[in-house]
Design brief:
Layout (H helix, E strand, L loop, with lengths): L10 H30 L15 H11 L2 H16 L19 H18 L7 H35 L3 H7 L4 H18 L5
Helix pairs in contact: 1-2, 1-3, 2-3, 2-4, 2-5, 2-7, 3-4, 4-5, 5-7
Bound molecules: biotin.
């Protein structure tokens, strides 16, 4: 009987560190790029507010629904950092100045929003049609709380503080986003529930 030496335990961590770093960071990096692409895809102006309709909330929702909370937070933090250092990754090709403008609160809110979604959603259970429907409903709830309620709360409060426009006026002027963000939440919940099969 021949003895086949196995890989030494002590050597493994040093060899696998770069692999572990790549494994932990490729998804956050991909979602940060997707956030930029969502901004670059274009914007729809909403009368009465300087904040446009964009696809960013869809990506924030997908990040929260598909990544562990630390990775979802890292994805948004990387995106915000890219804009803060001057890369034109925000809506309309804006960068640093957007973080002190009327859309700043929404951008800042993407971070707690994505983390909140990841913490609320739980694990998808696709073992039966009923279980899958319940999972999709929980994903939808998480997307609405984190991607709409949390993002809007930060957006409205900071926009009102920066512009001096009363909070109720800011909130009323922003109602044009609600229908689109509700549709994005449904799309994100259904897509993420289906895609959760891939993570198994
Ligand atoms: O300047 C930016 O890049 C941020 C734009 C923020 C747009 C907000 S996010 C929530 C709401 N839903 C939208 O579609 N647009 C606004």
């Amino acid at each position: 009987m021949t003895f086949k030496p196995s890989t030494t335990v002590a050597a493994s961590p040093a060899r696998t560190l770069p692999r572990r770093i790549i494994a932990a960071s490729w998804k956050p990096a991909m979602f940060a790029v997707l956030l930029w692409l969502a901004s670059a895809a274009g914007e729809i102006p909403v009368p009465g507010t300087p904040v446009p309709i964009t696809l960013q909330t869809l990506v924030v929702m997908m990040a929260g629904l598909m990544l562990p909370w630390r990775q979802a937070g890292a994805a948004v933090a990387a995106y915000l950092a890219a804009g803060a250092i001057g890369l034109p990754v925000f809506a309309g090709g804006a960068s640093t100045m957007a973080l002190v403008g009327p859309t700043a609160g929404f951008l800042v809110g993407f971070l707690p929003g994505a983390i909140m979604i990841a913490l609320l959603r739980g694990e998808a259970n696709l073992t039966s049609p009923l279980a899958a429907a319940i999972s999709a409903a929980r994903y939808l709830f998480a997307a609405l709380v984190g991607g709409v309620a949390v993002v809007y709360a930060f957006g409205f409060l900071i926009q009102s503080a920066l512009t001096g426009v009363p909070l109720n006026v800011v909130a009323l002027a922003s109602m044009g986003f609600v229908a689109g963000d509700a549709v994005k939440a449904v799309v994100a919940a259904l897509a993420a529930t289906g895609l959760s099969k891939l993570g198994r």
